[in-house]
């Protein structure tokens, strides 16, 4: 098609579409498919947030364009959140920017920072959106291997010197999608030191910062002294407050980068609808009791599945947060052959680990976004597959 750009034509095929096609086919034949592939909360947005949206949407002043960088109330709510949660000070004018969901923020951040051919280090395994965002900005991505034997921390010494020298930017994501790994302060200290030494910008995606179990508190990259010289952090309301469809998030940190992104975006969009920003501000300024309640539900699901997997001899580390369980495929399977078998023979969709990079091979990701009853059903279906002997063929 001559009117479609190479950039778009060359995008990798959407890996989940084949599974979704098979799902439809099975469902058309009357099968009851349980989809654990969907990495989005199934729970509703808390009422107090919806109430604020309803109120604000009735006010004519809110029907106009927002300021480009997001309204003051939203940016101040982000500042408040960083103070309360991380004891980090931010300037609402120069160090905070509203984005239309973090996915938008990530994509436009690439355009605002890299030149054609620049290299970006992306975690492997990691969220596939990073690689495509780099591609769309005409950059090149290089894998930053994460250590599966040690909690998926970055293995900087496994990236060759030349690649590091060509790199302009490095992405990290903790708590992580897909591995559910979390990172303590030292990991961020090391990341900032690596960024400083190699003149890189660290971009930390904190999409799951609030989804934790047993009161575990995540670290922000901004807590590292002088982090703002070398880093920005991207946050999102999507997962913490079940607001995926609302499209609201933020970027905080380095002033020049925030300014560059704001300038780039001001030529593309005019920020998010004001009532959505104000409802999101209410969420960030709330006492987080809604988040705590949701976290209990995710934890209960996680524990149940983890127990079930253990009985099936499927290995998985117990995560401290996120809406995922990351598990090893049984002996004799690849990520793909296992995901295929689960769909064909048990009517269960999981995401094969290789969808997240070559180092995801041998694993599969389960999203904790169905009810505990459905997870019981998943385990009972898997028990019938007799997985311990490997694939029979
Ligand atoms: C879901 C997800 C996002 C996208 O969040 P939005 O704010 O809804 O765009 C970003 N990063 C990771 C790692 C995610 O899993």
UniProtKB/TrEMBL annotation:
E.C. number(s) listed in UniProt: 2.6.1.-
Cofactor: pyridoxal 5'-phosphate
Keywords, sorted A to Z: Aminotransferase, Transferase
Domain Aminotransferase class I/classII large intervals: 32-381
Broad class of enzyme this protein falls into: transferase
Any Pfam family hit: Aminotran_1_2
Highest taxon of source: Bacteria
Keyword Transferase: yes
InterPro entries: Aminotransferase_I/II_large (IPR004839), LL-DAP_aminotransferase (IPR050881), NHTrfase_class1_PyrdxlP-BS (IPR004838), PyrdxlP-dep_Trfase (IPR015424), PyrdxlP-dep_Trfase_major (IPR015421), PyrdxlP-dep_Trfase_small (IPR015422)
One GO MF term attached to the UniProt entry: pyridoxal phosphate binding
Membership in a protein family: Belongs to the class-I pyridoxal-phosphate-dependent aminotransferase family.
Protein name: Aminotransferase
UniProt source species: Lentibacillus halodurans
């Amino acid at each position: 098609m001559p009117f479609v750009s190479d950039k778009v034509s060359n995008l990798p095929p959407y890996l989940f579409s084949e599974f979704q096609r098979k799902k439809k086919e099975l469902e058309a034949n009357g099968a009851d498919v349980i989809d654990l592939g969907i990495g989005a909360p199934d729970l509703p947005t808390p009422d107090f947030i919806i109430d604020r949206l309803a109120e604000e949407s009735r006010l004519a002043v809110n029907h106009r364009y927002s300021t480009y960088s997001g309204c003051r109330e939203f940016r101040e709510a982000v500042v408040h959140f960083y103070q309360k949660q991380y004891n980090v000070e931010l300037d609402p004018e120069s160090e905070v920017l509203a984005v239309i969901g973090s996915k938008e923020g990530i994509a436009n951040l690439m355009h605002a920072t890299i030149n054609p051919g620049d290299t970006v280090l992306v975690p492997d395994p990691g969220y596939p959106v990073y690689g495509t965002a780099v591609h769309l900005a005409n950059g090149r991505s290089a894998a930053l291997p994460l250590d599966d034997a040690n909690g998926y921390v970055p293995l900087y010494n496994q990236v060759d010197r030349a690649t590091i020298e060509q790199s302009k930017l490095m992405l990290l994501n903790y708590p992580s999608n897909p591995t559910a790994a979390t990172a303590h302060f030292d990991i961020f200290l090391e990341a900032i030191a690596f960024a400083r030494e190699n003149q890189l910008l660290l971009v930390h995606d904190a999409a799951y910062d609030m989804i934790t179990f047993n009161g575990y508190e995540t670290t922000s990259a901004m807590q590292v002294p002088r982090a703002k010289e070398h880093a920005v952090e991207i946050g999102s309301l999507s997962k913490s407050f079940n607001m995926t469809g609302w499209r609201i998030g933020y970027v905080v940190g380095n002033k020049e980068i925030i300014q560059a992104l704001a300038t780039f975006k001001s030529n593309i969009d005019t920020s998010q609808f004001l009532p959505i920003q104000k409802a999101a501000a209410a969420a960030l300024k709330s006492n987080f009791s809604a988040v705590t309640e949701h976290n209990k539900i995710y934890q209960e699901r996680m524990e149940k599945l983890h127990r079930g997997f253990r009985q099936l001899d499927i290995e998985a580390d117990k995560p401290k947060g996120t809406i995922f369980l990351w598990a090893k495929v049984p002996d004799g399977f690849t990520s793909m052959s296992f995901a295929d078998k689960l769909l064909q023979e048990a009517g269960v969709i999981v995401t094969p680990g290789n969808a997240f990079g070559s180092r995801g091979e041998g694993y599969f990701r389960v999203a904790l976004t169905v009810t505990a009853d459905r997870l019981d059903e998943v385990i009972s279906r898997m028990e019938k597959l007799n997985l311990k002997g490997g694939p029979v063929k």
